[in-house]
Amino acid sequence: MRIIASERTRHFVVRGHQGEVLPDALLETLRVHEVRAGWATGHGVLEDIELRSTESQLREPGAVRLISGPARAAILDIAIGDHEGDVSVSVRAVISYETPAGLVTVAGEIVRARIIGMEAHVVCMEDTRIEREVDRFTGVWLWSVDVAGGAEPPKTKAKSEAWGEAIAASEVKAVPRAPISKPMMQAAPIPPRPVAPSAPEEEDMPFPEAGDFVEHFAFGRCEVLKSDGGDRLHLKVGKDGRIREIALEMLKVTPLESGDPTRRRFKLDRRM
User: Fold this and answer.
1) Under CATH, which number does the domain 9-143 receive?
2) Which residues contact 212 (CB under 8 A, 6 or more apart)?
3) What is the per-residue pLDDT across 140-182, written as a single tens digit (0 to 9) for each?
4) Angle CA(270)–CA(85)–CA(129) in degrees, nearest 5?
């Protein structure tokens, strides 16, 4: 077995709202908060669940079954890592739901699901990079032993070297005390810092609306399909045509020059 150690971690909790989609909404949150390695656990209620089971023959992904829901995700176990330069997750779950025959409980990996309500505790490993890939023996996503990076295990010293260091450390040496000097004068008071000019209120700044274009720090050029009162945007990504929903609370919005007066342009960067 191989162990990757992390000396620096960051914790936060995530609340998924009705209508958001797993794992897309979670991936967007992890990108905004710059989480590239870690783990998360949680629970919630989901619907339209595409659940991948474990193939009996292994070595390849299992079949995907559809659970209309609503269904209780009693356990959500989420592995977070890196794949081809972008954050990647595996959302494993234990799902229970009622049928005419009684309660059914199944487990597997969530390919896609719509959130009714969900919460999770995320542990971010700040000083570690974990590359993830499909394991050739099991057919499931695991971290790659060949490219995973982390703290190397400490080298074991020889017994004689360690014993010599212990003897040297146990010797007590007298250290002369330095004389205590009295201050010659009182320290002058520190002048107050000048007050920085107040920044313009964000309410006065224009925000993207439907029909505008944005330059997103991760997705590139996108078209705004819908704006929810300046809080959330629904974007159509130019490079692949996918629809993504993002929150503006963690982004800096900067207007850009546009050659078309009917379609404005904005730049979306991470808040520092």
Assistant:
1) 3.30.1330.80
2) 223, 224, 263, 264, 265, 266
3) 778 776 654 544 444 444 444 555 555 555 554 544 555 544 4
4) 90
